[in-house]
Predict the 3D structure of the following.
Amino acid sequence: MCKKNLLTVLWIAASLVACSNAFQTRANSRQDDQILAKVTSPTAVQLQAVISSGLTFPVYVTHAHDGTNRLFIIEKAGRIRVAQPGASTPTLFLDINTRVLSVDNERGLLGLAFHPQYSINGRFFVYYTRQPDGGLTISEYHVTSDPNVADPNSEILMGGNFPIPHSLNNNHNGGMLEFGPDGYLYAGPGDGGSANDPPGNGQNINVLLGKILRIDIDHPNGGIPYSSPPTNPFFGATQGADEIYAYGMRNPFRFSFDRGTGQLYVGDVGQGAREEIDIVTLGGNYGWRVMEGMICNPNINLGVCTPPPGSILPIFDYTHSAGRCSITGGYVYRGPRSTVSSGVYIYADYCTGEIWQLQSGTSTLLIDTPLNITSFGEDEAGEIYVVGQSPGTISRLTTSPPPSPCVYLVSPTSKLFPAAGTEGMLTLATASDCGWLAATNVDWINFSANTGVGTNDIPFMVRDNSTGSPRIGLIHVGGQTFTVVQDSSAAPDCVYSITPSFQSFPSAGGSGTFNLSTEERCAWETTVSDQSWIKITSELAGIGNTTVAFTASANATGKPRKGTISVANQVFTVKQKR
Ligand SMILES: [Ca+2]
Ligand SMILES: [Ca+2]
């Protein structure tokens, strides 16, 4: 039975006597060998440690596609942690431990997906097995005014046909949640558990177990917070549950959308014979429990079957040889750092820790790791991360040796725009193989293209401001922030004053400040006369009172000199001796 459990836990190894060999071997090798992973053909890749401590049983890592370059990590017991760019220690983003039933191997907080407009609306979705009955629950939460802290009291349960009843067995809960390129939320519940799907849930289109589901969380259905897209195969009067997108799944614990093609790749965990990778399409039947991978389920009717009419075989499957037991579905690589070839599908076996690439139907071992890999994940640029179960680790899949970390610089960092809509531009500087995604926290800024690679001028539109007040919007890109300050047409009578009006520096130079006083409805921008020896170190644009900070560099001209800083309609003079 142990091979049916996706998340078999080392710390309950005592209960796994019948199949403990593989787990014992992995545990010993981990103690003996501090090298994270060794390199094999065909591509020299390695795992680069990102987070090595402080995580308990992580099961997923993802990003919020909000330009902040943060990583979000799920811990099975019911916590989400957030790691800032480059940070090795994450902080707590959400704790819903008390709502999550997680004592069993495969139960817990299992999935997390950020709304496509998360940077504006702060909505995100989780998938967990609930207290006390293990029902498969999808719910919405919201971030607080602190972007690194979510509100545990903001839960909106999906209702309708959720939670999906799942009290009889603790295994095969599925757990993946992801938005498709169509903006709908996809979920992958397992078949209800035990072994060989005794109720036949996979082939039963009237239950939600053993399916890929697709729901619309932007259009409530009366009092139910979601609706089913009318394009779902069994929508409305058509026989079958409206939420179903595809069926015949066993335990689609991890799936992903190819960011290049939009295709849905599902790693469907097998029973005792085959682990499989499916490309899942609308209305498709993927065979379980009649089929297991490419073959008839050997545990049913002595392995003799008629495949369900029209059922779709996996694009690849593998057997349980050499200690392999359970697929961990991954991602089609589209990252800019050429970690592996573009378009290959990366996946792992949970028991052996092997990471493979599937390319044109051929699977090749990339790297053999000592990890129990619970999941893969992507960052905003499309680089791939690996989640190790115990000790909990997050690693980045990189070339060997690894490339330099990506560093991003935005200039300028803020700018004042007129009330009438206009186009703006910011410059993002980074290495030629570093990807980025730009996002804004307001609905009045738009991008024509919000992703790219390397140094770029990033244009954006600032829409008309008819609110009667100046306003501020943020653009996040590469983990950096650009502040858009937009003026109001209703503020021509703004009065500004500064104190003091000048400052004198010795030839060695130094730093200084002055205060701008105005009303909270009045916007300003700071500019420097064409004197490269004066630099503003505070924000270049804003609303209301501010302190302008600047530096004056050493004077090597041999003569006294003078420059000015303008803010709103006021002029501050910087004088410097020779
Ligand atoms: Ca129906
Ligand atoms: Ca199948």
Q: What stands out?
A: Residues 234-236, 238, 240, 242 surround calcium ion (ligand 1) (CB under 6 Å).
